[in-house]
Amino acid sequence: MTWSLIARDRDTGALGIAVASRFFACGSLVPHVGPSAAFATQAFVNPVWGTEGLRRLEAGEAATQVLADLVARDAGAAQRQAHLMDADGRGAVHTGGECIDWAGHLMGDGFSIAGNMLAGPQVLDETARVYLESSALAFPERLLAAMMAGEAAGGDKRGRQAAGLRIHHGQDHPWLDLRADDHGDPLAELSRLLRVARERYLHVARIMPTADRFSGDPDRSETDARIARAEAARIAAGQPSASFATDP
User: Fold this and answer.
1) What is the CA radius of gyration of the chain?
2) What is the C-alpha separation between 73 and 218, in angstroms, rounded?
3) In sequence order, what DSSP letters do the residues of 4-27 get, joined into one string?
4) pLDDT tens across 132-157, in order?
5) pTM of the predicted model, to two decimals?
6) Model confidence over 67-84: pLDDT tens digits?
7) What's the whole-number average pLDDT of the chain?
8) Largest CB tally within 10 Å, which of 23, 62, 136, 222?
9) Contact 150, 142 (CB under 8 A)
10) Contact at 8 Å (CB) between 163 and 180?
11) Between vectors from CA 109 to CA 159 and to CA 78, what angle results, nearest 5°?
């Protein structure tokens, strides 16, 4: 199952994984992201590769060393696929010989893409092309635009069902973590959820506590004012809210 994109944003240092698949809730098992490293485990997924692998990457181990050890220990490694990025930006990838065609990977400066059960190599090629050509977009939109290009090129050859987007800004907790677990157009649903997040959630995320600022910013007056200004601008532009939330 699955193809995924790992990338680090040069401007902000943010680290993210976007994933899509004809497999239920792929966003719950495939992406593992931390403050400085990321690990995507897929195909006949072994989630322990992700949890152990990320922990070791965050402890400073090199991507190639971590992945080689996981492959060597796993009797099912021929059915697994994984790619990862360590704290120094170095990547590693494993596509087992029993992964279902089309299966492969593509790595570039600051990003890595891997997939299996795909319509063909053009899925990864288009994902990479649009990622590279979309540097003017904000990082979350850039990741989704790249994945949507891969989907337009054929995506998972079995169809569509789920997608996920997880981004960290140097913390153990995610800055953004969106999932569409069972949807006819899951990447489009993630795009809607991202628009909802920009209406309020990401304004609040700016003042949330961090490891270095344990209390964050308890004074939310400026954040509330920023949210109000953004809402007024959206209404003035004739743009309805993207949210399905209801009022009392």
Assistant:
1) 18
2) 47
3) EEEEE-TTT--EEEEEEESSTTHH
4) 999 999 999 999 999 999 999 999 99
5) 0.96
6) 999 999 999 999 999 999
7) 97
8) 23
9) no
10) yes
11) 50
